[in-house]
Structure formats: C-alpha cells, structure tokens
C-alpha cells in the first residue's frame, strides 16, 4: 500500500546533532526506548524493509538516522534510550545529544513515541509526552508489538494508555500497532501525514 512515505530514502547517520542535515523544511522524530521498534516502524511505514537498520543487539542503534520522503521533508530515527547495558559515558553523550536535538531543532514538527504495548509509559516516555506538549509539537503514541498480546489485553492496554496520556495533552493520539505485522500502518500514516500540510 502506498502512502506519503513510500518513496523514502536514507539521507545520513549523525553521531552528533551538528552532523544533521540543514535545519530546513520539516521533520518528525521517532522516539522510544531502545528495542521498542523505532527502526522496524520506519521500515513498515515506508514499506521498505532494510531502510532503517533493525538492531540485533539492543542499544546499538546509537545514531540519528535521517530519511527523506519529499524534498526537505524527513523522518528521523532517534537513538534509543533506556538500555541498561550501554556504558554510562555513552548514555551521557546520548542524553545530551537528544536533549540538544529536541530543544534546538527548528524543523522538528512532531514526535511519534513508540512504546512496547506490554510495558508502556516508562519514565522517558512520560518525559517525551510532557516535553512534546510543552513545546507545542504534534505527538502520537504507538503501542507496538501488539502481536504479542491477545485482543483483550490489547484493548485493556489501549484504554489504560489513552487515559494516561490525556493527563499530558488533549491533542496526543494513541493507537495499537505491530511493526512486525505492519498492522496499523494506514492509521499511522493518516495521523502523521497532515502534520506536514502546513508550512511552518
Ligand atoms: N514481535 C514483535 N517484534 C518487533 C516488533 N517491532 C520490532 N520488533 C523486534 O524488536 C527488536 C527491536 O526492533 P528495532 O526496530 O531495532 O527497535 P529500536 O531499537 O527501537 O529501533 C527487533 O528484534 C525487532 O524485530 C513488533 O511489532 N512485534
Ligand atoms: Mg533502531
């Protein structure tokens, strides 16, 4: 199925925010704990297996990976956070870089926050929701790996998280997702495509 993001190309991997593409146009970031499925989600959305590298070793996708789907319109795969086995020095580096990206990036218009549906709303997820709300960014939550739960537990988790995010922002949306099975990609595309309509 084709969508706005179907012709997406890899642009650059940045170790530091200073190596990112020029801060022009519009981009959205995919944020989430390490191993939550950020890269798999980008591959499902763009229908391009292997576009974003899916990590075999959790915590190792430690780069800002940038993809362009239209001139000056980008998707950014953020480094994962919250992986215990990453050395403390590396953690500090990434906290600093992610903070700097979120605070200073003019072209950033929204964030897709990816959570494991079995372990949603961890502290960094809450920080991201608060921060997105305070910064006036669009935000959408994916409850990923829904293939791991039965229908009943899926519904329960969706209800619980929908209620919880309402405390952060009335405009944040939330959906069930499986990057592996690609269930929910049409809904994801419908939610985030309009974010790019307005020239900022
Ligand atoms: N069962 C299941 N596994 C998934 C799903 N999405 C990602 N994964 C797996 O979770 C692991 C981490 O995925 P990755 O996209 O690299 O996560 P990232 O660290 O957030 O970029 C990989 O082994 C993926 O195959 C999903 O929807 N369902
Ligand atoms: Mg990744």
Automatic annotation (TrEMBL):
SUPFAM superfamilies tied to this protein: P-loop containing nucleoside triphosphate hydrolases (SSF52540)
InterPro entries: G_ENGB_dom (IPR030393), GTP-bd (IPR006073), GTP-bd_ribosome_bio_YsxC (IPR019987), P-loop_NTPase (IPR027417)
GO terms classed as biological process: division septum assembly
Cofactor names: Mg(2+)
Any one annotated GO CC term: cytosol
Keywords of the record: Cell cycle, Cell division, GTP-binding, Magnesium, Metal-binding, Nucleotide-binding, Septation
A Pfam entry, by short name: MMR_HSR1
PANTHER family per UniProt: ENGB-TYPE G DOMAIN-CONTAINING PROTEIN, MSS1/TRME-RELATED GTP-BINDING PROTEIN
NCBIfam families assigned: GTPase_YsxC
Similarity-based family: Belongs to the TRAFAC class TrmE-Era-EngA-EngB-Septin-like GTPase superfamily. EngB GTPase family.
Function (record text): Necessary for normal cell division and for the maintenance of normal septation.
Record's protein name: Probable GTP-binding protein EngB
Native organism: Marinicella litoralis
